[in-house]
Amino acid sequence: MITVMLGPMLPALSARWSLNDTQSGYLITAQFLGSLLGTVSSGFVASRFTFRSAMLLGVALMAFGAATLVSHGYFWGAVAVFCSGTGIGITVPTCNLVVARTSGQERSSSLNLLNFFWSAGAVSCPFLLAVLPAGQRLGLLLAGLVGFLGLVALALLAAPIRMPEPASSPEGAPQFRLQHVRTTVVLLFGTLFFVYVGTESALGDWLASYAKRAAGEQGGGWVTVPAYFYGALLVGRLVGSRSLKRIPDLAQARLGAVLAAGGVAALLYSGTLTGIAVAATLVGLGMSTLYPIAIGLASAGLGTTAVRVMGTLFALSTLGGACIPWLVGYVSTRFGSLRVALLVPLAGCAAIAVLFCNPLPEKCQSDS
């Protein structure tokens, strides 16, 4: 919910602070730059303390950002978004690594299930915003998120959950060296992570604004459009947690990338709220299993260096989230059309399809 809340909030925040699309895009960039900082530091925090401590710190930062987002003007709103992004950056890779380390040969399926719960929060956020009183939407939603994060912190402190301890390098163990990494593998998956997260974030953050403008919707229905996208991600990951046990990872990834590209193309031609919602659903279904599959293949392809290099890949994915949504806002301001700007995520989906067709993922799949 914290990750995706900017999307449905963006039109209201833009009106509140009189922002153009480029300035609105900077809010998204602030969130992901904070997430980049959190991602880069997550390994240090977890290894210095524990996985549980890292997640508690992340929850605290997210709560602080939500509590202060609309308390002042645009600048301090960006600072609040940066703080919540830092919390996201610490928490997400920590959760993914805990699940990856405890799931054995079913890591793709388990990671897919983990991301299913992320999707559940993403779907509920726009609907919660839509049902709240129009004049109090932002304040009530943010207050609710702060309260919910407090409950999560209490659960992390009190629940008897057994977590693996962060791995420590025994004395004399081989350390990370650049020559130990197959550079082409890192380049491929780094590009894939960058483009995927950037494209998904761009779509999630700009769908509500696009629906409001393209469909000329005067009511509040446009607020819910991102929920169709995230709902499709949720359903796709729920189904994918089982189908990935029977169908090869790459077969699903390639089909999904093509479906996502087709869905974005449909968005460009949709002029009604219903058409935009259907297209957003197709995009979400196509993208649903791409990221879990990429994480699983990268972990297999990097071998013994995965623990150290995965942090770099997560950082690149976060950098994609900081750059590509802002690029959409810049193109929209430059050409005066958010429809034209959606060519950016369309190109992203096409690039993902090309990257999954590279021979290297085939080898990573056979290695796993």
Short synopsis of the structure:
By secondary structure, the protein is mainly alpha-helical.
How does this structure look, described?
By secondary structure, the protein is an all-alpha fold. It contains 15 helices and no strands. The longest helix is centred in the middle third of the chain and has 32 residues, at 183-214. The protein is globular, with a radius of gyration of 20 Å.
CATH class: Mainly Alpha
* Number of domain units: 1
Classify the beta-strand content into a percent band: under 5%
The percent of residues in helical segments reads: over 70%
Main sheet attributes: strand count, strand direction, barrel closure: none
Shape: globular
Q: How far from one another are the termini? A: 33 Å
* CATH third-tier fold name: Growth Hormone, Chain: A
Topology, number of strands: 0
| Count of discrete alpha- or pi-helical segments spanning 4 or more residues | 15
Mean pLDDT: 83
Secondary-structure element pattern, one letter each = HHHHHHHHHHHHHHH
> Would you identify the CATH architecture?
Up-down Bundle
Task: Pick out the low-confidence regions.
Answer: 169-181
